[in-house]
Amino acid sequence: MIDHDESGALVVQVGEGFKLSEPVLPYEDDLTLHFLVTALGRWGSVATTVETWGGDGLDTFLASLAEDFRGWQGERIWHSLRHDLTISAEHHSGGYVQLRWVISDGAPAEEWRFETSTWHQAGEDMRTLAADIHAFIASVAV
Description:
Layout: E1 2-4, E2 10-15, E3 18-24, E4 32-41, E5 44-53, H1 58-67, E6 75-79, E7 85-92, E8 96-104, E9 113-121, H2 124-138
Antiparallel strand pairs: 1-2, 2-3, 3-4, 4-5, 6-7, 7-8, 8-9
Helix pairs in contact: 1-2
């Protein structure tokens, strides 16, 4: 679900305690896009800045999952420029998509890693998530 924080910036709440926020283009005339990924749980929290090249097609990846609402075989994977965010998607019976979100300090060292899963209904729920991520990325597009 897309919302705004106190400053008016867009926030995408992907699942309970898991969100993308603070999109920014840190370099003038450059497509590098940074955003914050935060996971909050009962036992702690973790946050990291994710670096992408104009979003690295994250919205397109999610839209393709929505278009294939009837399902697919195996796992589909997307990752950010520096591998600090990786998303794997699997279609399950009953019309559900499991998205596994992995945030880390990036490849190749990956000294720390956090993983969580969110479940979404195939079709409309995935289309909404893709549209929310598209709006999030486009909110700071050059």
